[in-house]
């Protein structure tokens, strides 16, 4: 009985179908806001769905010299991990009893899997630009994980527990994490880390349309490309929810909190899109220096402030 | 009409290749993406890799050096792919007809679905051409 319930959760409601639909709608918000920033009209709301259906109907080309299994399997591994992260986050937000000790750590781990699967898939593609993209993605992963984990730890320290349930309970009792100086600093750090995790400009170094022509997903076509894009859409859905859960009091589906939850989510998405549209791409060494320098120092300062009780 | 074909009409992704044009056509193609024409309204975007493309937009006459690359690009593209010959040169070699390095118009080597003439074609002409090529689906 339990297994059937969890399977249903994973595949339908907070899991795959729901997250995919909302994730694709989020990519539409991204494209629409981008278009408005550039004084254009932008695509209609069903554009991401049309793109996905079209890609599913196209031929899948596996390049000669590529490792077929690894090349085609890796996007699915990433998709499975992103779906799992989304399911866990939503279940914990809707029903705090499903939380367990250490789920914050598990989520941080699971959310690195899509990036790792992209690295492996691009390495299997036998394309020099793809492999260059994979190498850059790996460096970027090392760069942003450090400040991200320290920023997450600030929230964990203030709640005094590694379970998301107690982080949410702490915020419900003593006000959201964003209400304190250390919370605000870690929030800024984690926003920029999430920007890099989503490989958005200014940290779209692994994809770099203009120099690597798509980089890590240059060789994907048809249904495989649809899975890769779905993967990115899901991460675009998961990361704002993760940040809201840690710093902004979580989301809920009761009464007025439905509206505030949606507003929080859209606000964070629009912040991502505005950063994306007002910055040029940085080099990989600049990105690593940025995350290991100012961002790491800021996150440590936030941690010290949290220990001091600010 | 199948669902995938319907979706293809709503989101044709374009890969643009220059096989020896004078670059004027390429500037006009970029004009279509600007706020005045904004073809992203119809789901048209320029993509960086041929593997993502639904439409192969070829500007320029085919030069000796470009010919093997052009054939390879056509083979590499995931099917179904539509080919558009762009500009006077893409359609009939234009002013490069007698050039020592020109080996002929695009349709001599790969099947072409639509021709967009002009030197360079106006953005309005480009959009009309795209509508025609989507009508052949």
What Rg of chain A do the Cα atoms give? 19 Å
Provide the β-strand percentage band of chain B.
15-25%
CATH topology description of chain B: Rossmann fold
Q: Write down how many β-strands of chain B occur, each being a DSSP E stretch of 2 or more residues.
A: 7
Which residues of chain A sit in consecutive blocks of at least 5 with pLDDT less than 50? none
Q: How many DSSP helices of chain B?
A: 5
Walk across the major sheet of chain B and give the strand order: 2-1-3-5-7
Task: Please indicate the count of domains of chain A.
Answer: 1
Distance between the termini of chain B: 9 Å
What is the number of strand segments of chain A? 0
Which regions of chain B are unreliable across 5 or more consecutive residues at pLDDT < 50?
none
β-strand percent of chain A reads under 5%
The overall pLDDT average of chain B reads: 86
Question: How would you name the oligomeric state of the polypeptide chains in this document?
Answer: heterodimer
Descriptors:
heterodimer; A: 310 residues; B: 137 residues; alpha/beta; Rossmann fold; 5 helices; globular
Explain how this protein is built.
The complex is a heterodimer of chains A (310) and B (137). Chain A has one domain. The longest helix of chain A is centred in the middle third of the chain and has 32 residues. The model of chain A has no long low-confidence stretch (mean pLDDT 86). In chain A, 72% of the residues lie in helices and 0% in strands. Chain A is an all-alpha fold and 310 residues long. Chain B has 137 residues and is of the alpha/beta class. Chain B has a single domain, classed as Rossmann fold, CATH 3.40.50. The radius of gyration of chain B is 14 Å and the shape is globular. The chains are: A mainly alpha (310), B alpha/beta (137). Chains A and B meet through helix 3 and helix 10 of A and helix 1 of B.
Brief sketch in words of this structure:
The complex is a heterodimer of chains A (310) and B (137). Chain A is an all-alpha fold and 310 residues long.
């Amino acid at each position: 009985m339990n297994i059937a319930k969890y399977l249903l959760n994973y595949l339908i409601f907070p899991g795959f179908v729901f997250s995919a639909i909302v994730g694709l709608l989020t990519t539409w918000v991204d494209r629409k806001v981008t278009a408005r920033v550039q004084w254009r009209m932008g695509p209609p709301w069903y554009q991401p769905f049309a793109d996905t259906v079209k890609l599913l109907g196209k031929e899948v080309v596996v390049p000669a010299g590529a490792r077929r299994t690894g090349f085609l399997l890796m996007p699915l591994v990433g998709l499975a991990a992103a779906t799992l992260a989304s399911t866990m986050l939503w279940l914990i937000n809707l029903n705090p009893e499903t939380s367990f000790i250490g789920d914050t750590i598990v989520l941080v781990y699971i959310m690195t899997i899509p990036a790792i699967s992209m690295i492996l898939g691009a390495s299997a593609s036998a394309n020099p630009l793809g492999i260059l993209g994979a190498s850059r993605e790996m460096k970027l992963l090392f760069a942003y994980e450090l400040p991200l984990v320290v920023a997450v730890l600030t929230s964990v320290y203030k709640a005094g527990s590694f379970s998301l349930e107690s982080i949410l309970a702490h915020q419900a009792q003593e006000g959201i994490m964003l209400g304190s100086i250390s919370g605000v600093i870690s929030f800024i750090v984690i926003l920029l880390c999430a920007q890099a995790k989503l490989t958005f400009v200014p940290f779209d170094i692994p994809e770099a349309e203009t120099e690597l022509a798509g980089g890590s997903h240059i060789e994907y076509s048809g249904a495989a490309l649809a899975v890769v894009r779905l993967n990115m859409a899901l991460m675009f859905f998961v990361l704002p929810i993760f940040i809201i859960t840690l710093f902004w009091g979580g989301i809920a589906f009761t009464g007025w909190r439905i509206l505030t939850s949606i507003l929080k989510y859209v606000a964070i998405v629009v912040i991502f899109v505005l950063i994306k549209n007002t910055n040029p791409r940085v080099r990989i060494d600049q990105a690593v220096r940025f995350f290991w320098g100012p961002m790491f120092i800021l996150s440590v300062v936030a941690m010290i402030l949290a220990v001091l009780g600010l | 009409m199948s669902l995938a074909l319907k979706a293809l009409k709503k989101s044709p992704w374009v890969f643009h290749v220059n096989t020896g044009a004078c670059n004027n056509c390429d500037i006009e193609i970029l004009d279509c993406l600007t706020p005045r024409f904004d073809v992203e309204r119809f789901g048209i975007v320029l993509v960086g890799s041929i593997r993502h493309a639904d439409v192969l937009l070829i500007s320029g006459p085919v030069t000796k050096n470009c010919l093997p690359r052009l054939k390879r690009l056509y083979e590499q593209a995931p099917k179904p792919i539509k080919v558009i010959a762009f500009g006077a040169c893409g359609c009939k070699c234009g002013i490069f007809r007698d050039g020592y390095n020109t080996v002929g118009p695009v349709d001599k080597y790969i099947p072409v679905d639509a021709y967009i003439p002009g030197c360079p074609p106006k953005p309005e002409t480009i959009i009309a051409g795209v509508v025609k090529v989507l009508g052949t689906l």
